[in-house]
Amino acid sequence: MRKNKYCVELDVVDGSFPDRYMGCGYGREYTIPEMFERIASIDKITGVELVSNWQVTPENAPEIKKLCDDHNLEVVSILPDHFSQKKWGKGAFTSTDKNIRADAVQVTKTLMDLAAEMDCKKLTIWNGQDGYDYPFTANYMKELEWLQEGIRECAEYRKDIQLAIEYKVREPRLHCYLSNVYSTLMFLKEVNCDNVGITVDFGHCIIAHENPAEAIAACKLYGDKLFHVHVNDNFGVWDDDCITSTEHVIETMEFMYWLKKTNYDGWFSFDHYTPRLDGRDALIEGVNWMEDITALVDKIDDAKMEEMFKNVNAVEMSKMVRELLFH
Predict the structure, then answer these.
(1) What is the pTM for the complete model shown?
(2) CA neighbours within 13 Å on the CB side: how many for 115?
(3) May I ask the CATH architecture of the domain 5-300?
(4) How far is CA 326 from CA 47, 168, 230, 309, in A?
(5) When you count CB atoms within 10 A of the terminal residue's CB, does the N or C end of the chain come out lower?
(6) CA neighbor of 38 nearest in space, from 226, 279, 326
């Protein structure tokens, strides 16, 4: 069986995440060292993703790097906090205030330097506050140009660090720019930098009514732009970040098939939000799902699959998947 590389966003194993109704969080709060211990105790997890300000800053970076080294965990990606401070409330790269736009660029450049110091090769850029909420409130062309210019300036600052754009259709803005794989690929064509690509988040595909497997194929076809993958699940109406494969088993199988077919050799990052569960237990179950689905997908005969593509017969597909799952 293929050996996947698994990492996790550090706070996935914390218990204190709030929502709009339970502002105090549902479980106990873990310290950063405790979160590292919880992650390191899980077999097959060998990397972490860090969020700036929440977990890593220029000031505490040596301490965080030591925790990574002590627990044999690689810093896979750093996510700039362009979304949880009040100054970003009406946009970061797309703010109408040029000083805030400049700040978004500078924050990103600083974290690119920090990533290099921590032996990390990638920043995941999630433009959660770059968007709009109501009609007639945004100059779409101008704001998209600002977003292009800002990302391009960051990419040209350090070509040894990748910027992986994580697209999402909504939340926290009601309409986020870069809402699906095709708009993001078009955006990347305009940015025109080799070190800018895409993070495909399985759950973000689902809430955008997008087929995750098609998103993988599109990234391969249009520039080989898949830089990173987040795994989770939801019911299709909100970005619930449930345990991977708990709602869309067959779609996850096809997702993993196309990742294999397109020779993806990067990381699988668990982006769970399980406030009423023990995050460590949920993460272990996510790893188990990924391992079992990978084993199933590895049983698929590629030559037979090519014949099925020619036949376009959903009954044949259903039989194959059912037999993989239940026989």
Answers:
(1) 0.98
(2) 27
(3) Alpha-Beta Barrel (3.20)
(4) 33, 34, 27, 23
(5) C
(6) 279
